[in-house]
Design goal:
The chain contains nine helices and seven strands. It is an alpha/beta fold and 256 residues long. α1 crosses α9, α3 packs parallel to α4 and α4 runs parallel beside α6. Bound molecules: nicotinamide-adenine-dinucleotide (NAD). Nicotinamide-adenine-dinucleotide (NAD) binds next to α1 and α4.
Amino acid sequence: MQIKGHAAVVTGGASGLGQATARALAEAGARVTVLDLNEDGARATASDIDGLGLACDVTSAESVGDALRRATEAHGPARMCVNCAGIVAGGRVVGKDGTPHDLDVFSRVITINLIGTFNVMSQAAAAMVGLPNLDPDEPERGVIINTASIAATEGQVGQVAYAASKGGVAALTLPAARDLARSGVRVACIAPGLFLTPMMEGLSQDIYDNLIQKTLHPHRMGRPEEFGRMVRALIENPMMNGSVTRLDGALRLEPR
Ligand SMILES: NC(=O)c1ccc[n+]([C@@H]2O[C@H](COP(=O)([O-])OP(=O)(O)OC[C@H]3O[C@@H](n4cnc5c(N)ncnc54)[C@H](O)[C@@H]3O)[C@@H](O)[C@H]2O)c1
């Protein structure tokens, strides 16, 4: 799908991969609405790209509905929806002190990363399926891109909640693409390895060095703009549908 001239919404756009995606889509000529729990951050990203920044909690149906309504009023209906909002939280099934994983923490990670992604994608898709078709030769109404992680398949010690949430995001890619195929809406998913964003800045030097050592080539963390370029490529290529694409410099996570 052509990016230029169409509207996009990006969740988690106040920071990191979402911010880079908002910039990449704006550079390609999209009208971008940045959604984030962090309203000031959303506005700051938006002000750099002549976009709209709105407060939005991806876990709330009302908050997402309201934000998408306001985005549509400002920019017209979104043809592109990129879900980057997410959190990371560590914890083992049974902690070193013998207590089970905190159920509230597990639940929160699933609620934001998995249910939040589904909430935004389903509401955005409901609007897309009613839009005029863009291509005279085949259905083309919009593209949804979700963000999983390589932890979806290689979760490390202490990542049980995060890996479960990202496994869910990866797993829904194909059935969602199948559900929306007849409407001409594609669904793709990116599973990043390690990218230098505020989410990763809290890593200890040991963990950082260990992970960099295993990122074979390029031998460094990914740059958020490289994620934004992948988003653009997935949107622009009509055959990209129903798959999870790793973006990881050949990193394979080990148990720890
Ligand atoms: N950075 C990496 O190396 C990496 C690797 C794999 C996957 N990911 C995934 O990529 C996505 C973006 O990560 P990032 O590194 O840019 O993180 P980040 O912390 O820099 O940005 C995440 C953004 O999500 C927002 N957010 C959190 N909860 C929200 C909610 N309930 N509603 C709306 N917004 C909310 C935050 O305010 C923040 O701006 C996440 O889903 C993350 O799990 C990141």
